[in-house]
Amino acid sequence: MIKIQAESNVPTEYGIFRMIALSEESTDWMPHMALIAQNTDFSQPINVRFHSECITGEVFHSKKCECGQQLDAAMKYMQENGGVIVYLRQEGRSIGIINKLKAYSLQEQGFDTVKANLELGLPADNRDFSVAIDILNILNVKNVNLLTNNPEKVKFVEQSKVRLNSRIPLQIASNENSREYLQTKKDYFGHMLKDE
C-alpha cells in the first residue's frame, strides 16, 4: 500500500506546487508524485491530470511524442485553475526506458508505436492507473475534472469511488515527428483527439 513519504512546496516556472512523494517504502528512489497547485479548492471538483513519466519527452524534449508539452500545459492549467497532477512512474507505457529505446529503433524501421512494442513481446500499453486512484483517495479527492484524451483513464475513474464530473481535453498540435504516433493513439487506443 502506498503512502505519503515526503512533501514540500516547490517553486516552478509555472508557480508553486505542493510536491508529495508516495510509495510503499521510504527507500523507494522513484516514487509516484502528486503536484498540488497552491490555489486548489478541495471543496469543489478538482482538476486532475494522470501523467505517466516520459524521460525522452519531458527531460530531453523529444519530438516523437507530446508528453513533455502535455505536462507543461497541465502544470500551467493547474496553476491558473487549481488542481492536482498525479505523476506516475510508468516510463514508456510502463515498459521502461531500455525497452522504449528498443521500440524507437524498430520505429525507425517502419513499425508504429504499437507494433514495435508487440514485436518486442511487450504489451501495447502496460500502464495501470489504479495507483492514481489510490493517490486521489490518499489526498481525499472525491470529485474530479479529468484532463485527458485517454478513454482508459476515464474508465479507471468511472470504475472507482471517485466521481467524474467532466473531462477536459488536453490536445497538443502534432509535428512531423509525432504525427504518426498521435494517429496511432487515436486509431489503436481510441484517444479522443480532433483531426488537425
Query: Stretches where pLDDT falls below 50 for ≥5 residues?
Result: none
Q: Would you count the extended β strands for me?
A: 7
Rg over alpha carbons = 17 Å
Tell me, rounded to a whole number, the average pLDDT: 89
Number of helices: 8
How much beta, percentage-wise? Answer: 15-25%
Main β sheet profile: 7 strands, mixed
Supply the helix-strand structural class.
alpha/beta
CATH superfamily caption of the largest domain: GTP cyclohydrolase II
* Lateral strand order in the biggest sheet: 1-2-3-5-4-6-7
What spatial form do the alpha-carbon principal axes imply? globular
CATH architecture of the largest domain: 3-Layer(aba) Sandwich
Q: What is the ordering of alpha helices and beta strands?
A: EEEEHHEHHHHEHEH
